[in-house]
Amino acid sequence: MNKTYFIGLVFLLGNVCSVAQEVPVKTQQQLENLAEATEADEQDDTYLLQLGYLLNNPLNLNTATANELQVIRFLTDLQISNFLQYRSTLGKLINLYELQAVPTWDLATIQRLLPYVSIGPAVSIKENFASRFKKGEQSFLFRISRTIERSKGYDTSPGNYYLGDRNHILIRYRYQYKNLLQYGLVADKDAGEQFFKGGQSQGFDFYSVHLFARSLGKIKALALGDYTVNLGQGLIQWQSLGFGKSADITGIKRQSHVLSPYRSAGEFNFNRGVGATVQIGKMEATAFASYKKFSGNNLDTSTFSSILPSGYHRTKTEIEDRNSIGLFSAGSNINFSSSNWKIGFNSVYYKFSKAFEKRNEPYNYYSFSGRTLWAFSVDYSYTYKNVHFFGETAFDNEINKAMLNGLLVSVDPRLDLSFLHRTMSKEYRTVFGNAFTENTLPVNETGAYAGFIFRSLRGWTLNAYADFFKFPWLKYRVDAPGSGNEYLIQLDYQPSKFSQVYFLYRTKARPLNEKGTVIDFPVTKTRQNLRLHVITQIHPSFTLKARSEMIWYNRNEKDEEEGFLAFIEGTYKRNKFQSGIRLQYFETGGYNSRIYAYENDVLYSFSIPAFFDKGYRYYLNLNYDVNKFLTLWMRWTQTIYSNKLTIGSGLDEINGKQKSEIKFQLVMSF
After folding, report:
1. Of all helices (H) and strands (E), which one includes residue 259?
2. pLDDT per residue over 594-610, tens digit each?
3. Rounded CA separation 116/120 (Å)
4. Partners of residue 279 on adjacent β-strands
């Protein structure tokens, strides 16, 4: 199909169509940016589980606490603080329309919030406690997916190959009573892993069990089994989903409970053991301890060189690495708070069963090595009128420092500002940190960020940010200290509640090694995005959306690449039946000009593939509610390449120019 013709088709249909979203558009952008930064599939579906539960069990705004409101990620601490002060001053809400009177609460935020909240009377703790074990919501999920085309890994000729079949199977049982009691089981088998045979006589490759309770007298939270720990702003540890830079400029602050239940199928980023939070007056004290095993590249019987977080155990080599490293961790959080300020003291200790020894490369000179590591930090926040200040200062066991401080300001109902400064010394060491930084880990970086949102009275919103960062020491594929910058501007227009359009431009410049005749040397590489995204509704049962995007990588240089992607997607929903279909074309000059696009999937799932080379992709989602207890899902996807005879590499290589996947899901609620 001609590229110009496809653009015209997308925009013609985009101007007369819309889509219904389970996940807010800005959150989809954040997930796309996260996939681009990590170049990996995000396996944490906790956010979708939370949104799904709140759709069926809306949060009562007349009794909601600050911690409960933080679960809704698109509310900032400034908005939460202003809401709690409004409720304390004027009393309980009578109607949701009152939210328009809360300072810093704009109409866009309220519209995103409405599906997940309600107004109702308070329920006594005694009634809640008696109801926990008998009035909760139970669900059972079974999901199976399979790539239709057979890859090299399933060829059992001599050598390394996949020992299991091509099926990916997930089972999840979940019980939840509000946010007061949760327990459940997750079992997962990846494609290529054995199932009830060979080394997998126990069946699934991964099992996860959790029991989590809140408000047990002075015990505010109790976690048994698998759970996550989130401390401060992520400088020493953050295990939940953490977003980076996006058009949502108020999302620069990490927000979460210290302890949360772990309910996902990812096999690495969680604790396994016990944790508890006790509240005494204005003080909350949390302690936790964990021991788990994970996969690592073993150098010998006493050392390992890297952590393998993928959870794949398909070949003999991967099985040998499986659970070869043990990790004991423990820590604490003590925080004091009032209505407008909070200060917390955090500590964490890690002990590996083997010594961690990274490859002997110059960029690893300051990286953590050894068996034990501990760190401590102080996090803080303060709200004064329409200004919210927050931050964290952290030290490792050798007193190397990392610091992050931010500011959210609501100048007036039409203008919000955000600022963030971070400094992480090249000597600072962390293994499980996840903060608002350019690097994956909060190490070896200084930076300054500023953003604003301006809302006009006619449905126009302008979002923009600028970020400047430096790397004091070498990095992987960057053989000298360097610096970079990133800018974004996004213009949103919402002429009615049924339509939305946004135009985005982003540019990022950062150093990367250039191949030299004698040595490699870093030069600045620039990546530019230009996107137009259209959403509008034409019928209560029928919605569509469309996108067109261009990428320029290192423009006007010898290794320049260009990329293009366009899609149109329609969703139909009537009574018990729902369907969605997307048609997409992409063409790029190579992997450097790849484009990420969020895709709707079966319930509690999403996918964000990286598209490069040239081809077409389409998918079909079908959903049928058999009755109020049983829901069925089916998804079919296929990518067809125009100029390739093989797809993928290594054991994942497929002969041919198309790759197809089918997925079935069953959800029972009772």
Report:
1. strand 259-261
2. 999 999 999 999 899 99
3. 13
4. 284
DSSP count for the chain of H helices, then E strands: 8, 34
Question: Residue 8 is encoded by which pair of tokens?
Answer: 């015209």
Q: Give CA–CA dist 76/68, Å, rounded.
A: 12
CA distance 29 to 247: 8
The mean-pLDDT minimum among 84-98, 308-322, 354-368 falls in 84-98
pLDDT digits 0-9 by tens, 203-258: 999 999 999 999 898 999 999 999 999 999 999 999 998 899 999 998 899 999 99
Q: Which residues of 27-54 are buried (b: 16+ CB within 10 A; e: fewer)?
A: bbbbbbbbbbbeeeebebbbbbbbbbbb
**pLDDT of the residue at 517:** 62
DSSP codes joined into one string, 334-379: EEEE-SSEEEEEEEEEEEEEEEE---S-GGGTTS--EEEEEEEEEE
* Alpha carbon of residue 285 to chain centroid: 27
Q: Residue 200 carries which DSSP code?
A: B
Distance CA 151, CA 659 (A): 10
Q: What are phi and psi of 633, to 5 degrees?
A: -130, 145
* Token pair listed for 311: 């959870």
